[in-house]
Inverse folding.
């Protein structure tokens, strides 16, 4: 067991999110609502070899849980090659993927064969017309096909991520529980966050943890908290009388910064120590300038030891909270976008 590095609040360097691309094939209103985006220059995107090398360095420091995200990670060609490379790293304990599911049916078998452990599929609505309006895609059926495909291949502990937004899908909360239960998935409702690209964010659109619980209880009966579990897990888990479990990620109304062990690397190699961080640490330059693993590890160790970020808590305490970044700020620095940082 690798002794975990601790930051200034005693939080270990835990799970690592790798954003493998900033591009996406959806335009969800809460994430990429604008007509045009400034993309990271192609030459700046880390190769699979570079991503694998950084992951090896992080894993030797204790970050053995890796999640591939984006943008839409399945837009990155031959992602299974990256998974296979990560699988060979002795200190990597778990490799997971967060995807919108559009391309999952086509890639699930290759990813499974390469060693992917777990999948999370994002699905906010069960209604194709809403999907069209909200994510600007007619391909709702492809997501359902992706969900079926991963199950047929034997993936287990698959999760469904649903961001709940008032007036959009808050009337589907209980339906999403039914949908997940019927497919042996665990749904995790996510409070709408004012991160990165949420340029239309307003507190009035946030459906709180308590409201979500009330909506589930109304249809499904008593909701009991599930005890135990990792303190660093972002979702609070609950159980229904029939044993069905679901989660809530209350990052907006009840942030969990004190237990946050996550950090993320953008597709161009910027290491972010908090989803809300203004800036990150450039790992691409030392990587491409020939830094050794030991030098990269020293950089990570030194910066983690000085980490004091509590982005979501700071935002929650802010009076008159509005959007985090206006669109001009995002254009000036695309690394502030959620699709660049990897949610
Ligand atoms: N494209 C992949 C997907 O859709 O799962 C991975 C990237 S996406 C940025 C990761 C997760 O962040 C998704 O579950 C998405 O719903 C969530 N997300 C994006 N913007 C959000 C926001 N403003 N508030 C809460 N969750 C958000």
């Amino acid at each position: 067991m690798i002794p975990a590095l601790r930051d200034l609040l005693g939080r270990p360097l835990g799970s690592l999110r790798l954003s493998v691309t900033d591009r996406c094939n959806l335009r969800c209103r809460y994430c990429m609502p604008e007509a045009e985006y400034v993309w990271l220059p192609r030459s700046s995107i880390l190769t699979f070899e570079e991503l694998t090398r950084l992951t090896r360095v992080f894993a030797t420091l204790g970050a053995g849980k890796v999640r591939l995200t984006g943008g839409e990670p399945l837009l990155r060609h031959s992602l299974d090659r990256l998974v296979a490379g990560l699988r060979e790293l002795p200190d990597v304990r778990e490799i997971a993927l967060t995807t919108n599911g559009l391309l999952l049916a086509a890639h699930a078998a290759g990813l499974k064969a390469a060693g992917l452990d777990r999948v999370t599929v994002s699905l906010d609505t069960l209604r194709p017309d809403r999907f069209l309006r909200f994510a600007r895609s007619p391909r709702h059926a492809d997501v359902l096909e992706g969900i079926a495909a991963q199950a047929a291949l034997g993936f287990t502990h698959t999760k469904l991520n649903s961001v709940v937004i008032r007036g959009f899908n808050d009337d589907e909360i209980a339906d999403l529980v039914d949908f997940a239960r019927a497919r042996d998935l665990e749904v995790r409702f996510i409070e709408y966050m004012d991160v990165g690209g949420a340029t239309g964010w307003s507190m009035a659109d946030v459906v709180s943890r308590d409201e979500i619980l009330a909506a589930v209880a109304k249809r499904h009966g008593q909701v009991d908290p599930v005890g135990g579990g990792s303190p660093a897990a972002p979702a609070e888990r609950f159980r229904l009388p029939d044993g069905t479990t679901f989660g809530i990620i209350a990052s907006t109304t009840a942030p969990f910064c004190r237990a946050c062990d996550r950090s993320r690397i953008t597709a161009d190699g910027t290491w972010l120590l908090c989803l809300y961080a203004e800036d990150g640490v450039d790992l691409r330059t030392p990587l491409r300038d020939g830094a050794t693993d030991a030098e990269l590890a020293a950089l990570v160790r030194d910066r983690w030891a000085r980490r004091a970020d509590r982005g979501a808590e700071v935002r929650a305490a802010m009076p008159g909270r509005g959007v985090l970044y206006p669109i001009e700020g995002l254009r000036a620095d695309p690394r502030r976008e959620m699709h660049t940082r990897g949610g």
About this structure: The longest helix spans residues 48-60. The pocket of S-adenosylmethionine is lined by residues 24, 30-31, 69-70, 72, 98-100, 122, 161, 163, 190, 192-193, 195, 198, 338-339, 342-343 (CB under 6 Å). The mean pLDDT is 93. The longest strand covers residues 94-99.
